[in-house]
Design goal:
Strand order of the largest sheet of chain A: 1-2-3-4-5-6-7-8-9-10-11-12-13-14-15-16
Oligomer: heterodimer
CATH topology of the largest domain in chain B: Rossmann fold
CATH architecture of the largest domain in chain B: 3-Layer(aba) Sandwich
Structural class of chain B: alpha/beta
Shape of chain A: globular
Helix content of chain B: 40-55%
Distance between the termini of chain A: 52 Å
CATH architecture of chain A: Beta Barrel
Number of domains of chain A: 1
Order of helices and strands of chain A: HHHEEEEEHEEEEEEEEEEE
Radius of gyration of chain A: 27 Å
Structural class of chain A: mainly beta
CATH superfamily of the largest domain in chain B: Nitrogenase molybdenum iron protein domain
Order of helices and strands of chain B: HEHEHEHEHHEHEHEHEH
Number of helices of chain A: 4
CATH class of chain A: Mainly Beta
Number of domains of chain B: 2
Largest interface: A-B, 89 and 93 residues
Number of strands of chain B: 8
Radius of gyration of chain B: 21 Å
CATH class of the largest domain in chain B: Alpha Beta
């Protein structure tokens, strides 16, 4: 009986809450003269004889201000961006001189330095502009020596109600922290191998739509849900990748969900915490699926209450993946943790540890013959550290060294000297 | 689980539909604009500043919770001229608030209200440092420009909240009167300093010097945003000696080691001025400027 009762109580509660909300709406309606409503219809001015007088006086004040030598009001305000309607363009170039102790290295990022000698990691053209009062458009085109690639091209809504926002087009999904960013936002020259292992060298991206919700809770909570194609370069490693099995049902799309929370612990200390999930079909057979669960945290100390250039940050992401293969369920864990310390206006240093477990089968034994990484039968560790010099806000030089220790083969040393140049419009940084 | 979820969703729905407070919610990027808008809006507005008064407004971290302030804003005031270019857009888009996007009535770029100094003519190039192509954005240190800003803000508030139009315009008048009276006192106090030659850290005190008749003979940064190097420091020392500079003036957020060294070498006083009013503590714009004038007067 109790069990049967539960749903009706549940409905009663829903009804009650709906009523409360309804009352709220009804209560808000007659209050149409409150500022937000008024803001939408600024035409209704009160007919008060005083205000004309005040306005005239203000105008006179302004005039005397001008006469008193105050800077005159501009006749025509200067249009921003030099008066052009062109979108904001910026070019970002990443070059690296690299050394690998073994030519058969295990770098997984598509924009990592890939061979001993000189490397063009990428030449990125970032384009961004408002489309109209409803949309903003952003694109990232990446030029490599081999050709041009549309990394991202998407529209973002600007004023959906209730804290909602939608993106549509080709975009990097917001799984975790690094996946949705481009190399110029990274502390390291190369991508953590976890991302390359789970999502591929380009990270997880695809054509689709995303809806995110900034909840009205008192602290920052953002909920993100996206649906993208399960095939293509951005899904190589866990989903359809190059073997597109086609879309026959909603199950043949890739879904990414994330919840991101931010806590300003003090003026100087910030804490960002997220959990993410990616769910989609894999290429090992019809109805075989891959689930990826992730958690990310970012702790940043940047004193703004005193004059200082110091920044200390800790960033870590961990991924747990389950893959269905014909007759088998594999799971593995990968992740990284990095600390970054900017100790002077122009100088910073960072260290990173990465880990990747071998794929285990449902009994917990190492699985031999994984179609993705047949070689990967032991734990892999990699440590990297680097030193960064910023000549200005728009360029940086990094010297990075790393030691890769895959248990399944001999270790690899790598060293990079990377130069990054940013020109064009000054982009706004994300946190 | 389902029940908890439903309660949470209903709670959120209730929170988002709850009637907003009567006051106009104003968010200013910098504390100086916040102080002006509080003076103009008084009890009819709720004002938040995104940047802290001790923080260099060029380099504010777009900490995500700032987007919450923007999400609830009816009016966003920005200094403009690219001062906030490195951080504001992220927050503005993230706020999902159509009312404060560029072009909407709830967005006011205050640099459109004043005539900017140092607008580069000819080609703008980053080889000149982190230059602002639209002109120098530090106009809030000139009380004459602030008059225009206050009137512009009052007018915009009146458009958004016509019921309080009289109050906004009346408050703006009162603020202008107070500011003018104070300015007379400040100008009198620093009259003897007219023509004094000073060194500043960043190229940010052009408006202040223009108003007070000070002459900035050199900046400690060789180019905007580029930290000083020994050769440039030697050059600054030379110039400062030649011009008999008595004051090195800089905002509190800039480093002091080099400035102290130069001050010692040329026998000048290092004056650290607040760059922004302490808005969270309720400091008004007039009190903030009085503080700057006092520190300058003590040193000059």
């Amino acid at each position: 009986m109790r069990i049967r009762n539960a749903p009706s109580r549940f409905h009663a509660l829903q009804l009650f809450l709906a009523l409360v909300c309804g009352v709220n709406v009804a209560w808000a309606q007659p209050n149409a003269d409150m500022p937000p409503a008024a803001a939408r219809e600024p035409a209704s001015e009160p007919r008060n004889p005083d205000h004309q007088e005040i306005e005239a006086a203000l105008a006179a004040d302004e005039k005397t201000a001008a006469e008193a030598g105050a800077t005159p009001a501009p006749q025509k305000p200067a249009p921003a961006g030099g008066g052009s309607l062109n979108p904001d363009l910026s070019f970002i170039a990443d070059f690296a001189a690299a050394y690998f102790s073994d030519d058969e290295h295990l770098q997984t990022g598509a924009h990592d330095p890939s061979e001993t000698g000189f490397n063009l990691q990428q030449l990125e053209l970032a384009v961004g502009s408002s489309v109209d009062p409803y949309f903003r458009f952003d694109a990232n085109l990446v030029f490599a020596l081999s050709g041009v690639e549309i990394e991202e091209a998407y529209g973002t809504t600007l004023n959906l109600p209730l804290g909602l926002q939608a993106r549509a087009g080709q975009f990097l999904t917001r799984f975790g922290r690094l996946n949705s960013t481009h190399p110029h936002a990274w502390n390291f020259v190369d991508q953590p191998f976890a991302l390359g292992r789970i999502f591929g060298g380009e990270g997880n991206r695809g054509l689709g739509i995303e809806v995110s919700w900034l909840t009205p809770l008192p602290w920052y909570v953002e909920v993100v849900v996206s649906s993208t194609r399960a095939d293509g370069e951005g899904t190589m490693r866990s989903f359809f990748g190059a073997d597109d099995l086609g879309v026959e049902s909603f199950d043949d799309l890739l879904y990414v969900t994330a919840i991101k929370q931010f806590f300003p612990l003090s003026e100087d200390l910030s804490f960002l915490f997220g959990v993410s999930g990616a769910f989609g079909p894999n290429a090992s057979g019809r109805d075989n699926r891959t689930d990826v669960y992730g958690t990310d945290l970012y702790l940043k100390y940047k004193p703004i209450t005193t004059a200082s250039f110091n920044v200390v940050s800790l960033q870590s992401e961990w991924f747990y993946r389950r893959r269905q293969l014909p007759g088998e369920l594999l799971h593995d864990v990968s992740g990284y943790a990095e600390v970054f310390w900017r100790f002077a206006q122009r100088w910073g240093t960072a260290a990173r540890y990465e880990y990747g477990s071998p794929a285990l089968d449902s009994s917990g034994a190492v699985f031999v013959g994984d179609p993705l990484d047949s070689e990967w039968t032991e734990s892999r560790h990699r440590i990297s550290s680097n030193l960064t010099f910023w000549p200005s806000e728009f360029s940086r030089l990094r010297l990075q060294g790393s030691r890769d220790m895959p248990g399944f083969r001999s270790g690899i040393w790598a060293a990079f000297l990377a130069l990054e140049l940013v020109t064009g419009a000054h982009g706004a940084h994300a946190f | 689980m389902k029940r908890v979820l439903s309660v949470l969703v209903a709670l959120c729905a209730w929170l988002s539909l709850a009637p907003a407070a009567q006051a106009l919610t104003v968010v200013a990027t910098t504390p100086d604009l916040a102080a002006i808008s509080k003076a103009v809006g008084r009890e009819h507005v709720k004002v938040t500043a995104l940047a802290l008064h001790t923080q260099d407004p060029h380099f504010v971290d777009p900490r995500p919770h700032l987007a919450l302030d923007l999400a609830r804003a009816d009016l966003l005031l920005v200094t403009g001229a690219d001062l906030e270019v490195g951080w504001l857009a992220t927050l503005q888009v993230g706020s999902r608030n159509g009312a404060i996007q560029p072009g909407a009535p709830g967005f006011l770029d205050c640099s459109s209200l004043v005539e900017l100094l140092e607008r580069p003519s000819g080609k703008v190039d980053r080889a000149q440092g982190d230059v602002h192509p639209a002109g120098n954005p530090h106009y809030m240190l000139d009380p004459r420009a602030v008059e225009r800003v206050a009137v512009g803000i009052a007018k915009r508030m009146a458009t958004l909240d016509p019921r309080q139009k009289n109050a906004y315009l009346e408050n703006a008048r009162a603020f202008l009167a107070e500011l003018r009276k104070a300015r007379e006192v400040w100008e009198k106090r620093l009259a003897s300093a007219r023509g004094a030659e000073i060194v500043t850290y960043h190229k940010s005190l052009g408006y202040l010097s223009d108003w007070l008749g000070l002459k900035v003979v050199e900046t400690i940064e060789p180019r905007p945003g580029i930290p000083p190097n020994p050769r440039h420091v030697a050059h600054v020392v030379g110039v400062a000696r030649e011009h008999k500079v008595r004051v090195i003036l800089q905002e509190s957020w800039y480093p002091t080691t080099t400035s102290r060294l130069i001050a010692k070498k040329v026998g000048a006083t290092l004056v650290q001025m607040p760059g922004m009013p302490n808005f969270p503590a309720g400091q008004s714009y007039v009190a903030f400027m009085s503080e700057i004038v006092k520190r300058l007067d003590d040193a000059l």
